[in-house]
Design brief:
Helices cover 31% and strands 24% of the residues. The two termini are 21 Å apart. The chain has two domains: 199 residues, Medium-chain alcohol dehydrogenases, catalytic domain (Quinone Oxidoreductase, Chain A, domain 1), CATH 3.90.180.10; 136 residues, NAD(P)-binding Rossmann-like Domain (Rossmann fold), CATH 3.40.50. It is of the alpha/beta class and 379 residues long. Helix 5 packs across helix 6. It has 13 helices and 17 strands.
């Protein structure tokens, strides 16, 4: 079949993207699902900094590539051997497919699946193949096993989680990255207990989801840090107790608000200097959790003695240390119960043709989560 998709042909084109058009929306051939795979009609897909880092070249991937990794849709057809899904099922995608048999998967850590990571790096599906047809004899790659900026996709069944059919598709998409990563970092990676002090550096979709997770855990105080005043206001509306404008006095302000430093500090910007600030704002015996993805060449430096003398912990959190088939249903249930107001993260709805303008807005820090809605599918 042919389907419309946003294809990144070349990384590193200059901004504004509305002019350079790094993502080209075109008809792309899509092969039927192979064994263990699904054909999904994509209802909605979110714009994330992880996509932006491929566009600007800070996270190199094989080109050309259909981008997008935070998405939701409806199963249209299933490949041979698929028994867990049927046409008509509503699904959210996980951007790391889990093989179920490697050591991390056996230990209950599917976000670290080794075959899944290898497939994502190579731009193929978990089974090793590509279902995008070639463009001018050049193979088209999958993005993190999802490629959600399209009207239809083929994915591994191990990249999908069934969700309630009454969950609005534009909200459902947010659970695939922003919520799974941000809330998961709080409840899975850090395991924040009630009454613990929390600070969150960076209030994009993931950072604000961490604020939501901290509120749900009963943390107090909760300090939100960002450059953008509107995001700080939103964090306060979502339950943060303090808002700190990022700047030269950020660490001092956070330490004052938390009486000596927060017990748990989350960094979602993906910048080594901000991570250093987050570490400096963490109290003795506390944990600094990194959820943002810095450029692979950047290094993070801390006073080595503090790890021992202050019993400090620096911990990475990828995909919120989530088990998607366990965590997505419970996070969705929390949303439906009014505990996680995930809908407040959605600031813009776009068409597929507006994707480049959306990434300009994201790069300028003027959006939390923007979602491309394929209206024919989403009705």
């Amino acid at each position: 079949m042919m389907t419309r998709a946003a294809v990144l042909m070349e990384m590193g084109l200059p901004r504004p993207y509305a002019q350079s058009r790094p993502l080209q929306v075109m008809e792309v051939p899509l092969a039927p699902p192979g064994p263990g795979e699904l054909l999904v009609s994509v209802g909605a897909a979110g714009l994330c900094h992880s996509d932006l880092s491929v566009i600007d070249g800070s996270r190199p991937r094989p080109m050309p590539m259909v981008l997008g990794h935070e998405a939701a849709g409806v199963v249209h057809a299933v490949g041979a051997g698929v028994t867990a899904f049927a046409p008509g099922d509503h699904v959210v995608f996980a951007f790391v497919p889990s093989c179920g048999t490697c050591l991390p998967c056996a230990e209950g850590r599917p976000a670290l699946c080794e075959p899944g990571a290898a497939a994502n790096t190579a731009g193929v599906l978990l089974g090793g193949g590509r279902r995008w047809g070639p463009l001018a004899a050049t193979a088209v790659n999958h993005h993190l096993g999802v490629s959600g900026f399209a009207e239809h996709v083929v994915v591994s069944a191990r990249s999908a989680v069934r969700v309630p059919s009454d969950l609005p598709v534009d909200i459902a998409a947010l659970f695939g990255c922003a919520v799974m990563t941000g809330v998961g970092a709080v409840v899975n990676t850090a395991r924040v207990p009630p009454g613990a002090s929390v600070a969150v550096f960076g209030l994009g979709g993931v950072g604000l989801a961490s604020v939501l997770g901290a509120v749900a855990c009963g943390a107090n105080p909760i300090v939100a840090v960002d450059l953008v005043a509107e995001k700080l206001e939103l964090a306060l509306e979502l339950g943060a107790t303090h808002a700190v404008q990022a700047g030269p006095d950020t660490v001092t302000a956070v330490r004052e608000a938390t009486r000596g430093g927060a017990e748990f500090v989350f960094e979602s910007v993906g910048h080594e200097a901000v991570l250093a600030q987050a570490y400096a704002a963490t109290r003795r015996g506390g944990m600094t959790i990194a959820t943002g993805l810095p450029h692979p060449s950047k290094m993070f430096s801390i006073p080595a003695v503090s790890l021992v003398a202050e019993e400090r912990t620096v911990k990475g959190s990828y995909m919120g240390s989530a088990v998607p088939r366990r965590d997505l249903p419970r996070f969705i249930a929390m949303y439906q119960a009014g505990i996680l107001p995930v809908d407040r993260l959605l600031t813009h709805r776009l068409t597929l043709d507006e994707v480049n303008e959306g990434f300009d807005r994201l790069a300028d820090g003027m959006a939390v989560r923007q979602v491309i809605v394929n209206r024919v599918v989403a009705r």
